[in-house]
Write a structure and sequence with these properties.
Length: 663
């Protein structure tokens, strides 16, 4: 029985942070060694960071990555370590995993399949490795193998699939299985998305079963570069059995997941597979052999533990709370901002943003402890001496006009008090009136709600921007925008009003889910923080912008359509690319209680508003990617700013409705 203890590592890296990234890698190697691991798999491009963008092309970046690699070599005596970095060879750049051991570079494996869809743009910088041959790359006068290789370390065979390689139809795993590898390492930069962990788990389990191997999956962690959140998922499986699964969405910089693998058992199970057809040609140029002695270890109990929240019936709410809280925490410390400012209206969106900042503090302190939490924010002056941590990190500003209600003001004030935020109130009504009078005098007529509705609404939202920006400047804080994805889809937002801010943390989530999440936070919440009963004051309201006079009884859904329907239409039209006629037919089946005339009017309204408001979506502050329904044009959903606006398609829908009404 040959046993090997392996470690899959999650790292919270930052693009081009050479000192910080190397420090995390060294900590991971040292900790894994102390825990008895002799094989350590680190994430994809962990030396440079995954999100370097066009900086990958810089020769200086490439050289610094190699220097960092050399700096790690002395730490590898008696262990085997996989690290990720870009490598320039033959006039092109490759995304590589490098295996190092006993203070030596053993070789580089280049990624075969590049991620080029959705939020990923790897083909912009890297070339895919598609050669069956092994090349030689020269570094500081030494020659090292580069290609699709199997590493034989003391008789144990190791192969690689780098992130996207495992998701492709013609993946390297098949050839590695035929080469009788014992271990497949998958260093990944796999972004967070709702429900994705179940897919990863199935991938790793089935890969280990189908290929007759042990499979080690490592990943990045946290908000690495601004928009993408990595959940740090790590998995270790053998022959279809999950041996270990690491914690996700941790506030730590380094998270290790270890397991003991029985190499002989893996080989026996592979030999049983009828589908296993070994490479019978013997050793080839694709083998790198290195003498290595894995230490003899004793069997250990299998401790496959996952956090209780992972099995919750409200796992999406849990994921949203933890992912966005972690994303905000990393953005705060990496941008070196000294806190957050939220224009708190007392409605659902701004209340959700304020609650997420509160969760940042609660979840971070619960996991790290107060001392470690404060040390990660050491750039904020006097934070350690703050009597009330939330008040030091979050300022909420309620900005009233004559159209604001006592209901929203009370909700804002009570929520700020409950979460311990610093609360300020500004009455901006006089400023609104001054602008209205100024423009009225200039135009030579009095503005009124019958003819100037949109302009009179927007000026109220825009007047709120300068004051809250000023407070953010005075406090060296980051202003958080509060617009959601449903509003972004139809442009139901005021540019330079509720969209103003340096970061837009909820613009990737729909309003219907946001309202459900606030109810969950009111009644349950994460186990580490508990619930926020005061959110009842927010949840019992009917969503409204409060920009028209009270007598108009303005609500969001009266202005637009029911949010449940709006979000469904958005998914069908934008995610699933359904045209207006087909979408209407689907909607009629999905929402039979609506009259055809009303339903078709809402469908037409959506397509018109979507088309004319792309310019707004282009101007949103950076947002977090949370799922494949994202509308961010910089990372996910492209649409022309100027277009035909579906005019012909909508006319065909009108004809279809007319013909339908005659039948």
């Amino acid at each position: 029985m040959q046993l090997v203890q392996v470690a899959a590592v999650a790292l919270n890296q930052t693009p081009l942070d050479w000192a910080g990234n190397v420090k995390n890698i060294k900590t991971a190697i040292s900790t894994a060694r102390d825990q008895g691991a002799s094989l350590i798999s680190l994430p994809e491009l962990c030396i440079t960071g995954y999100g370097c963008e066009d900086a990958f092309f810089s020769p200086d970046v490439q050289q610094r990555a190699l220097h960092a690699l050399q700096e790690l070599l002395p730490l590898t005596e008696g262990i085997v370590v996989s690290v990720g970095l870009p490598l320039f060879y033959g006039g092109a750049l490759y995304n590589c995993a490098c295996l190092i051991s006993n203070q030596r570079i053993l070789g580089f494996v280049a990624k075969n399949h590049l991620a080029g869809d959705g939020i990923h743009y790897e083909p912009r910088w890297f070339k895919a490795w598609n050669s069956p041959h092994v090349s030689q790359v020269e570094i500081d006068g030494q020659s090292y193998p580069l290609g699709n290789m199997v590493f034989d370390c003391g008789g144990i065979r190791i192969g690689f699939e780098i992130c996207e390689d495992a998701w492709a139809a013609r993946r390297p795993g098949r050839d590695l299985s035929q080469a009788a590898v014992d271990l497949i390492l998958n260093p990944s930069a796999s972004h967070f998305a709702f429900g994705k962990q179940d897919i990863r788990r199935r991938l790793v389990l089935e890969s280990s079963r189908a290929y007759g191997v042990s499979y080690i999956y490592s990943n990045l962690l946290g908000n690495e570069a601004g928009r993408i959140i990595y959940d740090g998922a790590t998995l270790i499986a053998s022959n279809g059995t999950l041996l270990a699964e690491g914690p996700r969405l941790s506030f730590k910089a380094v998270v290790l997941t270890t397991a003991v693998i029985d190499i002989d058992l893996t080989r026996m199970n592979r030999a049983r597979l009828m589908s296993f057809q070994p490479d019978q040609l013997g050793d080839t140029e694709n083998r790198v052999v290195m003498p290595f002695q894995f230490p003899k270890i004793e069997p250990q109990p299998k401790l496959k533990t996952t956090a209780a929240w992972e099995a919750s019936q409200n796992v999406k709410s849990e994921e949203f709370a933890r992912a966005v809280a972690l994303g905000l925490f990393d953005y705060l410390r990496k941008s070196r901002s000294q806190g957050f400012v939220v224009s708190l209206s007392g409605g659902a969106d701004s209340s959700a943003v304020a609650t997420l900042v509160w969760l940042l503090v609660k979840l971070g302190v619960a996991e790290l402890g107060l001392h470690s939490f404060l040390s990660k924010l050491s750039h904020i002056p006097d934070l350690a001496q703050a009597v009330d941590l939330p008040a030091r990190l979050l300022t909420c500003v309620y900005q009233a006009t004559r159209n604001s209600s006592d209901t929203t003001e009370q909700a804002a004030a009570k929520l700020a008090e409950a979460i311990g935020a610093d609360y300020l109130k500004l009455d901006v009504d006089a400023i609104v009136l001054n602008y209205v009078e100024l423009v009225s005098d200039s135009l030579g007529r009095e503005l009124n709600w019958n003819t100037d509705d949109i302009a009179l609404q927007n000026i109220q939202a825009r007047v709120r921007a300068p004051g809250v920006w000023m407070i953010a400047n005075l406090r060296n804080a980051l202003l958080l925008a509060t617009s959601n994805r449903s509003e972004a889809a139809v442009g139901y937002t005021t540019m330079d009003g509720d969209t103003c801010g340096g970061l837009s943390p909820i613009s990737g989530i729909d309003k219907a889910f946001l309202r459900q999440w606030l109810l969950w936070m009111e009644k349950s919440g994460p186990v580490e923080t508990g619930n926020l009963p005061i959110l009842k004051l927010v949840n019992q309201q009917v969503p409204t912008a409060e920009l028209r006079p009270e007598a108009s009884h303005q609500t969001d859904e009266t202005d637009l359509m029911p949010y449940e329907l709006l979000d469904w239409i958005e998914r069908a039209a934008i995610r699933d690319k359904q045209g207006p006629v087909d979408l209407y037919r689907l909607a009629r089946a999905q929402f039979p209680d609506y009259q055809p005339a009303q339903l078709s009017a809402w469908v037409i309204r959506f397509f018109q508003l979507w088309s004319r408001n792309q310019w707004k979506r282009e101007r949103y502050a950076p947002s977090f990617h949370l799922d494949d329904e994202n509308l961010d044009p910089k990372t996910w959903c492209r649409f022309p700013i100027l277009s035909g606006s579906y005019q012909r398609e909508l006319e065909e829908l009108r004809v279809f409705i007319d013909e339908e009404s005659l039948n």
